[in-house]
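Researcher: Let's try something more involved. This one mixes different molecule types, so please make sure each is placed in the same coordinate frame as the others.
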Amino acid sequence: MKEVAAESRTEITLTVNGVAHTVQVSPRRLLADVLRDDIGLKGTNLGCEHGYCGACTVLVDGETVRSCLTLAVAVDGADITTVEGLSGSDELNDLQRAFQEAHALQCGFCTPGFLITATELLDSTEGPLTEQQIREAIAGNICRCTGYVHIVEAIRRVSEARAG
Amino acid sequence: MKPPLFAYYRPNSVAEAVARLAREEGAVPLAGGQSLIPMLNMRLARPTTVVDLGGIADLQGIDVSPDSIRLGARVTHAALEKHGWPHGYEAIPEGVRQIGYGAIRNRGTVGGSLAHADPAAELPALMLAFGASIQLASPRGERSMVADDFFLGYYETARASDEIITSVRIPVRDDLRSGFSELSRRRGDFAIALAVAVRWKEAGRTEARAVVGGLDVRPRRIPEVEEALVTGSELAITADLLARHVHPANDVHASAEYRLEVGAEMLRRAVWSMENREDS
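Model: All components are placed in one shared frame. Result:
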C-alpha cells in the first residue's frame, strides 16, 4: 500500500540506463518529465503528450511504454532504458548507425521514439523482418519530415544483418 | 498538457480499492492508464485521487479451466496477444493486435478497456461476441454481468463509481469458430468500423453472434445475421440491414453512410474468415 497526498512528494527509485536515480515526485509527475527534467536526459522527447506521436517512447522493464502516459510514482523500482542508453557506450549501436546510413532522420525529434520501438521489435521478433512487420510495429510513431521509407529501410537492414 | 493535482493511492487488495472509491466521490481507478492518463493530461478528467490497481495481485493472470477462460482485469493487451488461444478463438488475438500500438498494448488492460467502453474499441465488441461475463466488485460484494448488459452507451457502462472490474470470463464452447475484421485509417487507430462473428454448439444446438463496433454508441449485435449463421441460410449483409440496428455518427473520420457500408463489409469479412479457417 502506498499513499501520497496531492500536494506532497514521495521518493521513488528508477534505474535508468543502468544507473540508479532517487527522485522526489508528486503523484501527477509524468515519467517523461522525470527523465527529462529531474534526471536530465533530454533524449526522450515530448510531442503530443497524449500517446499518439510516440516521441516519448522508452523501455520500462524491457517493454516499450509511452513515458507521457506513465505516472512516475506508479513505476517506482522500474528498470528504464532511454535513447541515451541504447548503445551502452559513446559509440552508436548497429540500429543507430543504420538510421544514420539510411538517412532515416532529418530533424531528429521523432528518432528516439523510433529507435526504442525498433529495439523492442528487433529484440522480440525473429528476423529477418518483413516490411509489413516493420510498418505495423512503427505505426504508433509519427515522423513529420523524413518520412517512413528510410526508417523502414534502416530497421530492415539491421534485421537482415542480425539474422545473418 | 500536464495532469492536474491529484492524490495517489496504491492499495494491495480489491477491498481497499473499492472502499476508497466508495468513500471518496472524486476518486477514480487507474488500470493501464492508456485512456485515463491522456484524459488527465488534457484535463478532461480531474479526479481527487487516482487509485492505482497495479499493486493488486488478484487482478492478474489468465486462468484456463474446462468451462471458461478467466482474464484478470489487469491483464494487458500484449499478454492477450501472446496467450495460446484454443483453436477457434483466433478472433480474440486478431482483434487485440488492432488495439492501439505496441507501446499502448504493453500497458493497456482488459478491465481498463471494458470500463472505458469506447464505442469503437475492439475488446467490448469481442467480449460481446464471445458471450463473456464481467465480474465486478464493490463494498456491497461481487456481481457478474453479461457483456450485453454491461455496455450502456457512449463511454457508459453499468459499473458503479465505487465498483471495479476484477475479471472477465469467456465461456469455453464446443466447436467454436470465430472471425474478426476491422478498418482503420492507420494500423492502431480507432476503427471506422469493426466486426466479429462467432458460432458454436451448445446442448445440440447451433448458436451464433454477429457484432459490429464503431457504428453506434456501443457494440451491437445484428440478429438477422446471427439467425442466418445458425440456420445456414443465405443472407446479404448490407448497409441497409445494419441500419436497422445501428445509427452511426457523422464525424471527421467518416460519414454515417460510409460507416454503414464499411460495417457491412467488415461483417461480411468476419463471417468469411470464420467460415474459411483451416481446421487443425
